[in-house]
Amino acid sequence: xxxYREPPPSFDCPYKDHCPYLEGLSTHWILSEYQRSDIRExxxxxTREQMGEEINTLLNTVDEQAQQIDRLTAENKMLHQRNxxxxxxxxxxxxxxxTEGDHKASPKKKQRGAPQGHPPWTRKVPERSDRTLEIDAPxxxxxxQEQTDPSxxxxxxxxxxxxxxxxxxxxxxxxxxTAYCPRCRRHVIRELEHEIPFAxxxxxxxxxxxxxxxxxxxxxxxIQHIMSTLFGLDFVPASSLGFEKRARTNADxxxxxxxxxxxxxxxxxxxxxxxxxxxxxxxVWYAGNKDVGVFHIDAHRSSEAxxxxxxxxxxxxxxxxxxxxxxxxETSARQSCLAHLLRKAxxxxxxxxxxxxxxxxxxxxxxxxxxLFKIACHxxxxxxxxARTALKIRFLRALDLICEQPLLxxxxxxLRKRLxxxxxxxxxxxxxxxxxxxPTNNHAExxxxxxxxxxxxxxxxxxxxxxxxxxxxxxxxxxxQLQGSDVIDLFCTLLTGSIAQAHDVMFxxxx
Length: 511
Known about the structure:
This protein is an alpha/beta fold. It is built from 15 helices and seven strands. It has helices spanning 27-82, 100-105, 203-214, 220-231, 239-263, 303-310, 338-354, 360-377, 385-402, 410-419, 431-435, 442-458, 464-483, 487-496, 499-506; strands at residues 179-181, 186-188, 267-277, 280-288, 293-298, 313-320, 330-336. The strands form two sheets. It has a five-stranded mixed beta sheet with strand order 5-4-3-6-7, sandwiched between helices. A two-stranded antiparallel ribbon has the order 1-2. Strand 1 (179-181) and strand 2 form a beta hairpin. The longest helix is centred in the first third of the chain and has 56 residues, at 27-82. The termini are far apart. 25% of the residues are buried.
């Protein structure tokens, strides 16, 4: 009997609902289950592939989180250790005796004080002696109470310099003869050279109060306490504001003159830091060089605030950090502070060393960058322009070689991208070589440090006038220090003289 490949069209199996070969199961149900099993198998394989992808994603996430935890742990350790000076020599333990070999291997600790053979420091002997006291020889020894021998006598002398506590103030009564001016239609008087007409406090006391405020950086109440305790001169703290208002007449014009002198300098250092005015965040800006220093307190830290102090264009070399607000100022050249870049490279290198699985190329990059910048900071700049240009090219080639390969560590890669030839900061790293200027912005940071301490003591200022007073008088005292002038004489001249006289006192042109 032949076998059909397919049943005839009219064939109907009588056992389709309970086939004896399928243990009484329906052939339709078996066929449908067979067809559905292929679909389910396909779905199971898809589910398995999706679960495999999810597992791989989770494993990658775990690896990334482990690396991130490693980086954060190293960075947290660096932040904690930054506030403490590292110990160069391990502390000796009393329980573990040190051997002779260990003692020789350990580095010798540097002794405190001046090195051996250094000449001692002595005060300058006063040129005058106001009084001489002659004291008789003692009859008994002050140490052992033994009777002294009057036949063996001699003399010894020394000079002692002291101050007068609570000196008596000088009270002057001015009696002016008046004359009538027909043009002004009033009686006028003739002012003396060091006189403030109709002022109850003289120029010396006002200049001393301004000195304590803007040079020593004391609050107004402390100034009142010092003047009352040391000099016996009583006034309320608000009187110091009146002293500043009186001195601002000439100080404002001198302040504007200092800004113009600063902008025409061959080298200009610029930096900014936080300030507080009436409880709100402000910023104090500094710009200056070895001759002039100018401060400006502004509510913003933008490029417009930088232009208020520096102007739209500078003819000389501008030395700043990498803050983008200075990009709006047109300069002949700009030097990016190598101390900031050197410190950043050191920090990243220490973080990478503290990680369990550090990025070795990133660590080599940070160490090489720090070494290059350290050499550049201590390099002697040649005098010839061609020699300086050749030296700058050699340093740039070394920098390009260090920054050649991309890095996996994100922070190190960010630093590398700042220094590649396509970046703006690349041409600003070694600009000091070509212009024979400073490689760091240490001048501006040292100039801002007294105001940072002053902000912490006085919590800033309370008004725009107070901020303007800080800007003006801090600029005058900073410039006077750079010029080697007497700040108190400058304040006295601001109170009693003209703007030309104050300018001569500040720049030592009084002769």
